[in-house]
């Protein structure tokens, strides 16, 4: 009897390690963000992150040497950018500030971002080393980005020549941060718009 040949099954493509690694990275960051909001920074452990993300602890250490490094990247992932990224400069200072502050308000309104931020800020009050790291790697670069944009506006004649960019940044950011931190009022786009209007009227060119 003649043997019939069976068609060979097409070879399955090999798993893409880059795709698998990206899935693991995102799972780790998501797990760290959830746990930070649940247990706080002090009680957060690499073991707990690995268990929540369903990866081996060595997988986490492949990318991050410490839990602080993981949490820094949680912030970056949540905000969708990098610390110190230049502010938009369309030539319209009012519109550029509204765009950035609207985005900040939207981040604060996100439940996960809110939990992560509050847990991190609470831990910074008792951990000076962590506070310095956050300031150096996150807060100060972002403040400098605001200062650079306001300095460019001053040089373009859109702000009074005597405007101090550092003080101007405080006028813009402090009310937003206080409203969020103290839950002292609604933090909305209309509030931000009114804040930008007030600050720019106060700092506008004189004469």
From TrEMBL:
Q: Which residues bind DNA?
A: 45-64
Domain of life where this protein originates:
Bacteria
Residue ranges of domain HTH tetR-type in the record = 22-82
PROSITE patterns from the UniProt entry: HTH_TETR_2 (PS50977)
Q: Which UniProt keywords apply?
A: DNA-binding, Transcription, Transcription regulation
Q: Which InterPro entries match?
A: Homeodomain-like_sf, HTH-type_TetR-like_transc_reg, HTH_TetR, Tet_transcr_reg_TetR-rel_C_sf, TetR_C
A Pfam family cross-referenced in the UniProt record is TetR_C_11
Q: Give residue spans, biased composition: Basic and acidic residues.
A: 9-19
Q: Where is this region: Disordered?
A: 1-22
Under which name does UniProt file this protein?
A: TetR/AcrR family transcriptional regulator
Give the organism the record lists.
Answer: Nocardiopsis changdeensis
């Amino acid at each position: 009897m003649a043997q019939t040949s069976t068609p060979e099954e097409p070879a399955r493509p090999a798993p893409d390690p880059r795709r698998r690694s990206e899935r693991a990275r995102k799972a780790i960051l998501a797990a760290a963000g959830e746990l930070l909001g649940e247990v706080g920074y002090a009680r957060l452990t690499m073991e707990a992150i690995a268990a929540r993300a369903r990866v081996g602890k060595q997988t986490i250490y492949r990318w991050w040497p410490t839990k602080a490094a993981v949490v820094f990247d949680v912030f970056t992932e949540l905000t969708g950018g990098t610390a110190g990224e230049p502010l938009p400069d369309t030539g319209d200072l009012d519109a550029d500030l509204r765009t950035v502050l609207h985005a900040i308000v939207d981040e604060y309104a996100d439940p996960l971002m809110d939990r992560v931020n509050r847990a991190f800020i609470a831990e910074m009050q008792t951990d000076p080393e962590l506070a310095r790291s956050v300031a150096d790697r996150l807060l100060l670069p972002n403040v400098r980005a605001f200062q650079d944009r306001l300095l460019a506006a001053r040089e373009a004649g859109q702000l009074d020549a005597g405007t101090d960019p550092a003080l101007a940044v405080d006028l813009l950011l402090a009310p937003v941060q206080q409203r969020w931190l103290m839950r002292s009022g609604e933090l909305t786009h209309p509030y931000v718009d009114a804040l930008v209007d007030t600050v720019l009227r106060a700092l506008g060119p004189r004469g």
